[in-house]
Specification:
The chain is α/β, with parallel strands linked by helices. The chain has 2 domains: 115 residues, Pyruvate Kinase, Chain: A, domain 1, CATH 3.40.1380.20; 150 residues, DNA integrity scanning protein, DisA, N-terminal domain (YojJ-like (1), CATH 3.40.1700.10. The strands form 3 sheets. The protein has a 7-stranded mixed β-sheet, with helices on both faces. Strands 3-2-1-5-6 form a 5-stranded mixed β-sheet, with helices on both faces. A two-stranded antiparallel ribbon has the order 4-14. It is elongated. The chain starts with 14 loop residues before the first helix and ends in a 6-residue tail after the last strand. The model has no long low-confidence stretch (mean pLDDT 85).
């Protein structure tokens, strides 16, 4: 009998490809409303095409500009996240917080998530239902982010807070509080104890969406007091002492005056607050007097990553 020549072995799937295939199966089995993928751990977006399904949304979260653009050709649901290294759990928190604000996912919906360390293969798959995971959000009993606060402004403030947590100022940790939206009412319940360093400048020059203003915010982060920011991104004041007339919900143990002020001002106004803890670098988001979520201190992305 003639001996058949040896056939070359077909290479098996990569780790990321195997995780993506598993996510598709799990999403179908549990009836997920969405699949959320950390794009920074996906070497090629072509591999995600198998996750496209009319029954659920594919949400890609990435900090890489080229990848964000390419993901937009694959799915309508793309989230630009800060260029910092987050833990796997905090990657999920960040993606879901932004997906919530962009109305990509609703309370009670179930989603499958795929994450990993940036620059390495996907290595973690999980299933969550929004509102049932206490570690994901402290509360989901919140209205949608209203149009008086632009979503891009909220994202920029959150990014600045995470970058400050990662970098500090001149090598030293800093604490900060940003109050976004309902600025007239916030100012009514505040006091300017120092000269307002942004007063007198044209609004275009003090909009937080301008990269130059973002750097200025970082320089001013060492000033005691809050940044008050209009919903369109214009920075109204810095070094502002908040004096709300009602208190927020009871604080988790260990949180101090900065967090109490954030809870109280969001209970008194239609604003959102983002706080940065000087002691541990944790970033927290506050609304309607409650802490919505917290993200632990981020690290800079590894050298060579965008």
């Amino acid at each position: 009998m003639d001996q058949q020549p040896d056939q070359p072995e077909r290479p098996g799937p990569t780790v990321s490809e195997a995780m993506i295939a598993a996510a598709a199966r799990v999403a179908a089995d549990v009836g997920a409303d969405a699949i959320v993928v950390s794009g920074n751990s996906v070497p090629s977006l072509d591999a995600l095409s198998s996750l496209l399904d009319k029954r659920r949304r594919l949400i890609v979260a990435s900090s890489l500009p080229g990848q964000i653009e390419a993901a937009g050709r694959l799915t309508r649901h793309v989230l630009e996240i800060p260029s910092v290294q987050l833990s796997r759990q905090d990657q999920v928190k960040m993606a879901m917080l932004l997906a919530f604000s962009h109305r990509m996912i609703q309370p009670g919906q179930r989603f499958v998530f795929l994450t990993g360390v940036a620059g390495r293969p996907l290595d973690t798959l999980g299933v969550m239902q929004v509102g049932e995971e206490s570690e994901l959000f402290q509360t989901v009993d919140q209205p949608q982010l209203t149009e008086h606060i632009r979503r891009i402004v909220f994202r920029r403030v959150l990014t600045l807070a995470l970058e400050l947590a990662s970098e500090g100022r001149e090598g030293k940790p800093v604490g900060a509080i940003f109050v976004i939206g309902d600025d007239k009412e916030v100012q009514r319940l505040s006091q300017q104890n120092i000269l307002n360093p942004v007063q007198g400048y044209p609004e275009k020059q003090r909009n937080i969406l301008d990269d130059r203003m973002a750097q200025t915010i970082k320089e001013f982060s060492t000033i005691d007091g809050a940044f008050v920011i209009r919903g369109n991104g214009v920075v109204v004041s810095a070094g502002t002492t908040l004096r709300p007339n009602i208190s927020g919900q009871p604080l988790p143990q260990g949180l101090g005056a900065r967090h109490a002020a954030a809870a109280a001002i969001t209970a008194s106004t239609q604003s959102i607050a983002v706080t940065l803890s000087e002691s541990d670098g944790t970033v927290r988001v506050w609304r309607r007097g409650q802490m919505i979520t917290e993200i632990e201190k981020a690290k800079p992305l590894a050298a060579g990553r965008e």
